[in-house]
Amino acid sequence: MEEIHIESSIKDTFTKEIFLEAAGRFGINFADTIELDGFQNFVFSGKRESINVILRIAHSSHRSKDITLAEIEFISYLADSGMTVSKSLLSNQGEYAEVIEQN
Question: Is residue 94 within 8 Å of residue 82, measured between CB atoms?
Fold first, then answer.
């Protein structure tokens, strides 16, 4: 199966400011993150209050907020069913998914 990567035209729209904003909304110091391999997402390993966390940033052309929230709901269902999965983090505003508008 062919790997799907972020298209260059989309990747080029993501600036450091967007990454800083996204990390900040979830209480993560972006300067301390490590970029991991992602396919249609940017994925970073970092810390939030000394806890290891993963931050996933997706473009709206690949994942709408509703689709992201549905994925989180499914992960919560798996956790409630006894599966070992990572818990989703709330943002500083109490949201599981945040939308960052691009100019």
Answer: no
